[in-house]
């Protein structure tokens, strides 16, 4: 029987939750790095004992931690995220220009293809790559130097690069998403990038056909069908069938199409999960009911999943990196809330239970399926 | 000539550096913020970037430097530290700026 390890980043430390394939009884370890914001933890798909963590603080800056024993012990690795050359300027909230300045690492994405390679998405938006297990970092500056860079602007959470998707077989093909610039694709390992935002409609910007400026909250794909991309945008759930060339809205019958995370089932490429949130001003579930919505048709038609989730007086949020699926035969789905709960379903979302419920606000959830 | 300088760290950084209580540093030559922090980061490289910004080498905005009941945060990095710090009679204090309500 395989095991399950859930990596939880919170406002005040990291937690590691472990169970067997049954996923009924959970052991909670942590907090690791207590008092620090842990924006994201993620394990290498090539070496499940290697886990990276982004540890950050308004006081003491950015630290990257690495574990080589499955999260039992940790060591600091490189934290020099210097932009390549003169960083240039981007839009500020008031339309003025502001120099690019490093703030923190939002997302760490270990390579599918090389055990020593890991990517980091940072604020102010840029993509960094390490080929030595995080000891040193180099910016893939073709992205920041995209001709639209001076038009990029921060979303409410900052101008962050928060999503990094890797093609399952082509190591040179990556997708990233930036709030609030949009989605970008490279087919040459990060040297050059193409904005892939055609078809997005965003009421927050004046030109609906703008190449950039869209507040993309999250992307996901299924490795068996990597040309199909799913997107939770600020408003709207979107789908592309051509690797991002064109997007179509698939919000369908959702009670709200605002939200942050989106995830694809481990074994069903057309099964997708979102958590509808009331609005960008009301960051809590519609009607105070915490509901995951599942589409088994690749979008448009959605069903609420409520069994085991609070259905009254619930006013938490689920952030963009706080939902994940495992690879067990009966696919598990996990998400964490700003109220400190981590909910899990071991039956593709049909039923849910909290596996831990009083953590600090949850920033990220990732899951490992262990053999 | 070298000087034994005492340094105190805030709890988060003590935990990261895995030290308890004060840190004792041997500083060759003049004792300044820069020479003390260079020695501190040399002895505890996990602290690189947590007190001084990696890109600018300047004090992070929410980190303060106190010694001998004085706030030295705005002194130039090469300003000599007080004689009592140089003599090891008082610690050079790295402090997280006040926060909370």
The largest interface is:
A-B, 18 and 21 residues
Oligomer: heterodimer
The tally of helices of chain B reads 3
- Rounded radius of gyration of chain B (Å): 13 Å
Question: What does this molecule look like?
Answer:
The complex is a heterodimer of chains A (about 375) and B (about 100). Chain A has about 375 residues and is mainly β. Helix content of chain A is about 0%, strand content about 40%. Chain A has no helices and 30 strands. Chain A has strands at about 5-10, 15-20, 25-30, 35-45, 50-55, 60-65, 75, 90, 95-100, 105-110, 120-125, 125-130, 140, 160-165, 175-180, 180-185, 195, 215-220, 225-235, 235-240, 250, 260-265, 270-275, 290-295, 305, 325, 335, 340-345, 355, 360-370. A four-stranded antiparallel sheet of chain A has the order 3-2-1-30, with no helix packed on it. Chain A has a four-stranded antiparallel sheet with strand order 4-5-6-7, with no helix packed on it. Chain A has a four-stranded antiparallel sheet with strand order 10-11-12-13, with no helix packed on it. Chain B is of the alpha+beta class and about 100 residues long. Helices cover about 20% and strands about 25% of the residues of chain B. Chain B has a five-stranded mixed sheet with strand order 2-1-5-3-4, covered by helices on one side. In chain B, β3 and β4 (about 70) form a beta hairpin. Chain B is globular. The model of chain B has no long low-confidence stretch (mean pLDDT about 95). The interface between A and B is medium-sized, with 18 and 21 residues.
């Amino acid at each position: 029987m395989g095991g399950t390890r859930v990596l939880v980043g919170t406002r005040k430390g990291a937690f590691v939750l472990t169970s067997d394939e049954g996923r009924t009884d959970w052991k909670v370890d942590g907090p690791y790095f207590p008092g620090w914001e842990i924006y994201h933890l993620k394990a290498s798909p090539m070496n499940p004992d290697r886990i990276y963590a982004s540890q950050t603080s308004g006081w003491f800056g950015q630290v990257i931690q690495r574990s080589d024993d499955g999260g039992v012990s940790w060591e600091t690795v490189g934290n020099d995220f210097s932009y390549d050359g003169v960083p240039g300027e981007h839009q500020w909230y008031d339309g003025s220009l502001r120099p690019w300045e490093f703030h923190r690492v939002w997302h760490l994405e270990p390579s599918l293809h090389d055990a020593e390679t890991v990517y980091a998405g940072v604020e102010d938006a840029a993509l960094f790559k390490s080929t030595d297990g995080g000891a040193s970092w180099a910016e893939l500056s073709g992205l920041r130097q995209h001709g639209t860079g001076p038009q990029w602007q921060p979303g409410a959470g900052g101008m962050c690069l928060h999503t990094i998707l890797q093609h399952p077989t082509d190591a040179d093909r990556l997708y990233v998403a930036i709030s609030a610039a949009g989605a970008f694709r490279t087919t040459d390992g990060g040297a050059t990038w193409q904005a892939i935002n055609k078809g997005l409609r965003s009421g927050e910007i004046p030109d609906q056909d703008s190449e950039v400026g869209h507040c993309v909250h999250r992307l996901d794909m299924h490795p068996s069908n990597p040309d199909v991309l799913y997107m939770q945008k600020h408003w709207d759930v979107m789908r592309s069938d051509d690797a991002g060339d064109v997007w179509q809205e698939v919000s369908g019958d959702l009670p709200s199409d605002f939200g942050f995370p989106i995830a694809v089932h481990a074994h069903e490429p057309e099964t997708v999960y979102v958590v509808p949130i009331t609005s960008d001003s009301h960051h809590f579930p519609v009607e105070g009911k915490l509901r995951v919505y599942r589409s088994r048709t690749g979008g448009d038609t959605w069903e609420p999943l409520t069994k085991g989730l609070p259905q009254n007086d619930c006013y938490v949020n689920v952030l963009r990196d706080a939902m994940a699926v495992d690879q067990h035969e009966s696919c598990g789905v996990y998400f964490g809330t700003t109220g400190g709960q981590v909910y899990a379903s071991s039956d593709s979302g049909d039923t849910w239970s909290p596996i831990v419920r009083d953590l600090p606000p949850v920033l990220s959830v990732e899951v490992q399926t262990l053999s | 000539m070298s000087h034994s300088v005492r340094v105190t760290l805030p709890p988060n950084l003590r935990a990261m550096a895995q030290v308890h209580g004060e840190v004792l540093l041997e500083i060759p030559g003049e004792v300044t913020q820069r020479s003390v922090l260079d020695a501190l980061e040399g002895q505890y490289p996990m602290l690189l970037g947590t007190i001084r910004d990696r890109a600018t080498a300047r004090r992070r905005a929410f980190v303060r430097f106190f010694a001998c009941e004085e706030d030295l945060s705005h002194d130039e990095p090469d300003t000599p530290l007080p004689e009592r710090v140089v003599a090891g009679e008082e610690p050079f204090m790295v402090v997280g700026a006040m926060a909370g309500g």
